[in-house]
Amino acid sequence: MHSGIYPRVINILRQRVFWVTAAGGFCNAYPLYFVVTWLPIYLIHEQHLSMYDMVNTAALYYAVDAAAALATGWLTDLCVRHGLAVGLVRKSAMAVGWSTAAIGFIGCAWADAHSYLPWLMVAGVGLGTGNAACLRSRRHWLVREHPEGGALYRTALPISPE
Fold first, then answer.
1. How many Cβ atoms are within 10 Å of 154's Cβ, its own excluded?
2. Do the Cβ atoms of 44 and 54 come closer than 8 Å?
3. Model confidence at 21, in pLDDT bands (50, 70, 90)?
4. What's the pTM value of the predicted model, to 2 decimals?
5. Which residues contact 121 (CB under 8 A, 6 or more apart)?
6. Domain ranges of the chain
């Protein structure tokens, strides 16, 4: 339990950082949920793959997504170590990744049985990149109202070893 004065909900809703965080969470969670629920249906019903081929294609998609996440983490850490601003690096990676994923999904929507796989891999690279940057930049903050003026301020929560 943290001691101190907590802000009113309306004061939180007025903060830009709240809306940016909410948008980032949406951009992270929605495409992930979409892919987990949509991918098998898309591969079977739209691309007419057998169950065996669907499993192999989905596994390839998830492997590409994971490889993109690892590469993004390594590259963004390298950029930060070389002096670039953390926020700029992570937000740029998120924007590039999720834009790439959107292009891949649009390509999948228009693709036929002979052209869907490259578009699906583009979406995988995009989601791996965007989600890795989002997850890499998460920090837990406690938002409080200043006791003397009512202004909001953030304090980082300690990271527990658990």
1. 12
2. yes
3. confident
4. 0.74
5. 60, 61, 64, 104
6. 9-156
